[in-house]
Specification:
Elements: E1 2-5, E2 8-11, E3 19-21, H1 26-32, E4 39-40, H2 56-59, E5 65-66, H3 79-84, E6 89-91, H4 99-106, E7 111-112, H5 125-136, H6 139-159, E8 168-172, E9 178-182, H7 187-194, E10 213-217, E11 228-232, H8 239-244, H9 253-256, E12 260-263, H10 266-274, H11 279-295
Helix pairs in contact: 5-6, 6-11, 10-11
C-alpha cells in the first residue's frame, strides 16, 4: 500500500499489526476499524488508556501504552519510547506533525500524515477515518463507516425540518474577556451544520482564524445572539457562572427567549469536541433530544 500525503508518500509493505497513534484523537478511527493500538497519545480526560467511554467497547481488554507518561506534548513526540515499542505503523493525523518529526519517525516505521489541505489539526473526521482505513488496507470499510454516520446526521435533519434556516452559534469560554465561537471546518460547527443549521462565518465583522475560531470580546457578546446559542462547557465547570455574570449577557435576545443549550456533561462535551467516527454518534444520540427541547 502506498499512501500519498503532505510530505510525499509512505509505503506500507505488509498489513500492520503493531500500530501507534500520535494524533490526539487518532485511536478512535483505528478502534472503529477493529484494530487496537499498542500506544496512543494523551489529550484530555482522566480515562484509563486515554480511551473515553464511547470507545471502551471497541478497546475491549487491550491495554495500550499512553505515551510520554500521559503528558500531552505533540510538539515533542517521545521518539525513543516510540522506537522501543517496535511499531510497524505510526498514524499521525489529528496533529501538527512537522517534516522533521516525520523524518525522525519514519526511521522507526512507516508514518501516515494528512494531505496538505488537512495538515496542522485541520483534518475532518471523515478524512481521518478514510486515511486510517487506507493505511490498513481497509478503505472501503472506512468509507462505509463514514457513510453510516453521515446518514445518521441526514436522518436527524430530515426528522427535524425546524432546524433548517435557523442560525446556531457554538461558543466556548477559555480566557477572561472573550468568547470563542466555532465556525468553518471545526467539528463542533459542522455538527450543527449537518443537522441543517446555518453557522455564522463572522460575528460583528470578526473573521475566523485558520482553525475556524472567532474571538468575540465581551463588549460585543450581544452579537452572538442568534436562533440557538450552544455553550460547550463540560470541560470547564465554572464557565457557566462566568458567562451568566457578564454584564451584557442578560440582554441577549436568545437568553430572553430561553434558546440557550448548555452542554455541561463532561462525556457529552468530550464526544462533541473529539469529533471522531465513534464519538460523534454518541454526541448525536445525547444532544439531539436536548436541541429539540431547547428550540421548543
Amino acid at each position: 500500500m502506498t499512501v500519498d500525503h503532505v510530505y510525499g508518500e509512505t509505503v506500507i509493505e505488509e498489513e500492520p499489526t503493531r500500530v501507534i497513534t500520535l494524533g490526539l484523537s487518532d485511536q478512535d478511527a483505528l478502534l472503529a476499524l477493529g484494530v487496537k493500538p499498542i500506544a496512543v497519545s494523551p489529550w484530555w480526560g482522566d480515562y484509563e488508556y486515554a480511551t473515553w467511554p464511547w470507545a471502551q467497547d471497541e478497546l475491549g481488554d487491550a491495554q495500550p501504552v499512553v505515551l510520554n507518561d500521559g503528558v500531552r506534548d505533540e510538539a515533542n513526540p517521545p521518539i525513543e519510547e516510540i522506537a522501543s515499542l517496535e511499531p510497524d505503523l505510526i498514524i499521525s493525523l489529528y496533529n501538527g506533525t512537522t517534516k522533521e518529526q516525520y523524518e525522525q519517525l519514519s526511521k522507526i516505521a512507516p508514518v501516515v500524515v494528512p494531505d496538505k489541505e488537512f495538515a496542522d489539526f485541520a483534518i475532518t473526521w471523515q478524512e481521518a477515518t478514510r486515511a486510517t482505513g487506507e493505511a490498513l488496507g481497509r478503505e472501503d470499510e472506512a468509507l462505509a463507516l463514514v457513510k453510516d454516520l453521515e446518514n445518521s446526521f441526514a436522518d436527524a435533519a430530515k426528522q427535524h425540518p425546524e432546524f433548517s434556516g435557523k442560525t446556531a452559534v457554538v461558543a466556548e469560554r477559555f480566557e477572561a474577556g472573550e468568547t470563542i465561537v466555532r465556525t468553518g471546518n471545526d467539528v463542533r460547527a459542522k455538527f450543527f451544520e449537518q443537522l441543517g443549521f446555518t453557522i455564522p462565518t463572522e460575528i460583528a465583522g470578526i473573521a475566523p482564524n485558520e482553525y475556524g475560531e472567532l474571538y468575540v470580546p465581551d463588549e460585543l457578546v450581544t452579537e452572538i445572539s442568534k436562533d440557538l446559542l450552544v455553550w460547550n462547557v463540560g470541560f470547564a465547570p465554572d464557565a457557566r457562572a462566568t458567562v451568566e455574570a457578564l454584564p451584557l449577557y442578560p440582554s441577549l435576545g436568545v437568553v430572553g427567549s430561553n434558546k440557550v443549550l448548555w452542554v455541561e456533561d463532561d462525556v457529552v462535551s468530550g464526544a462533541f469536541s473529539w469529533g471522531t467516527v465513534l464519538s460523534l454518534q454518541y454526541a448525536l444520540d445525547e444532544l439531539l433530544p436536548q436541541i429539540t427541547e431547547t428550540l421548543s
